[in-house]
């Protein structure tokens, strides 16, 4: 295990990648634990790695007073974040990309910090771990992303709150679907994985859930919807993950419709049903963290502060079957965790008769 010796009694923290509910709860947990238990000063770096490229570096002192108000309950990140400012391939105004990693490392050095805690998803972990290695920066990661695709952790901060938003949408769509005898298609985020789609589909009573992990046969989807109708139900709910793999003739990138829009049109054509589409989008990233995300953020944040205080580095804190533990960053960085086809969520969906398009 990599260890370092504290010189300054100060640690830094930043958020990186797309925001989600629960980031402020995690920043709060790190700050509380670092100050109260370990007597460290905590410095928040603004705007992720982009803040490290500013001169002076964009930063703020995180004290107990900063958290006297509402942050535990608030969505977003009080530090700000970026999901496009990779310092190894930084987008320049003239359209070129430049390696600015040395500048980011130099920025970190100006803050006289013993360690950096980074809250990020899989992409951010890859960038931050590379930066930390190159700059010999002691680094601890905390996983967050509504997509829930960070390797090794069962849950990333923000995922369950996003699922709640999608379930709420299904709860609202069902009565209007029934009133108008329609098939309602809900498109959810998740990038290349179907974690939000399948969890929301199970909890929200969907008939069909289309996820990137399972290639879609529209014939199977149509058959399921016709069976629902034959059972005497006049409406149906379909959840589509944004990264869904549609039949080969569908070029998602070239088509100006959303993935959900394409599926809705295909359903209308194959079944004759009237369809409507809702694309949930960034609504899933906003709002208050639910209770689970506050607990997860508090547990992961406090553990990360302990690791930084003990002089550990190159670790990421995870939720592993109900326990908070830490594992080597290298076992997570650069990996994506897709849904397992023999995992609990996929199996539960199938057992509940939900059609996954295969
Ligand atoms: O990774 C989180 C996420 O919300 C994905 O689900 C989505 O595809 C993407 O970020 C959206 O990114 P942006 O905020 O840049 O539109």
Automatic annotation (TrEMBL):
GO term, biological process aspect, one: fructose 1,6-bisphosphate metabolic process
Active-site residues, Swiss-Prot/TrEMBL: 147 (proton acceptor)
Transmembrane segments: none
Residues reported in the UniProt entry to bind Mg(2+): 122
Enzyme class: transferase
GO MF, any single term: fructose-6-phosphate binding
Location in or out of the cell: Cytoplasm
Keyword entries, A-Z: ATP-binding, Cytoplasm, Glycolysis, Kinase, Magnesium, Metal-binding, Nucleotide-binding, Transferase
Phosphofructokinase domain residues: 10-307
Pfam families reported in the protein's UniProt record: PFK
Cofactor(s) essential for the protein: Mg(2+)
EC annotation from Swiss-Prot or TrEMBL: 2.7.1.11
Sequence positions that bind ATP: 18, 84-85, 121-124
This protein's pathway: Carbohydrate degradation; glycolysis; D-glyceraldehyde 3-phosphate and glycerone phosphate from D-glucose: step 3/4
GO cellular component: 6-phosphofructokinase complex
Complexes and interactors: Homodimer or homotetramer.
UniProt protein name: ATP-dependent 6-phosphofructokinase
Source species of the chain: Candidatus Defluviicoccus seviourii
Record gene name: pfkA
